[in-house]
């Protein structure tokens, strides 16, 4: 299948140069980028999002951090499953 995309000149030039540096065609470079992006796992929650999930009094991150993050991550996965 063919696709037509429009790129700014500077992006096109950098991508062509990177492909040349890798010894592959521009088209192969784009295919690899797309394949890598589409096969990557979903982004994990950022630290800001995780910290925003913490409720209650201040806690000791060294003592409680792993548990709190695990609970927040579990809650996020449960929400996604709904």
Describe it for me?
- This protein is an all-alpha fold.
- The protein is 68% helix and 0% strand.
- It is built from 4 helices and no strands.
- The protein has helices at 9-22, 26-39, 47-53, 61-81.
- The radius of gyration is 21 Å and the shape is elongated.
- The model has no long low-confidence stretch (mean pLDDT 82).
Summarize this structure briefly.
This protein has 82 residues and is an all-alpha fold.
SSE topology:
Elements (H helix, E strand, L loop, with lengths): L8 H14 L3 H14 L7 H7 L7 H21 L1
SSE string, helices as H and strands as E: HHHH
Give the helix proportion (percent range): 55-70%
Runs in which pLDDT lies below 50 for 5 or more consecutive residues are none
Main sheet specs: none
How many helix segments? Answer: 4
- Number of E-type strands: 0
Note the beta-strand portion.
under 5%
The helix-and-strand class reads: mainly alpha
Roughly how many Å is the radius of gyration? 21 Å
Shape: elongated
Note the gap between the termini: 35 Å
Mean pLDDT equals 82
Task: Label this structure with key terms.
82 residues; mainly alpha; 0% strand
């Amino acid at each position: 299948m063919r696709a037509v995309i429009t790129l700014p000149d500077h992006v096109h030039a950098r991508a062509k140069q990177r492909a040349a540096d890798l010894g592959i065609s521009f088209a192969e470079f784009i295919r690899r980028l797309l394949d890598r992006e589409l096969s990557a796992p979903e982004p994990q929650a950022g630290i800001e999002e995780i910290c925003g999930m913490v409720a209650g009094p201040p806690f000791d991150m060294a003592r409680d951090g792993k548990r709190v993050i695990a609970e927040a991550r579990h809650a996020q996965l449960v929400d996604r499953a709904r």
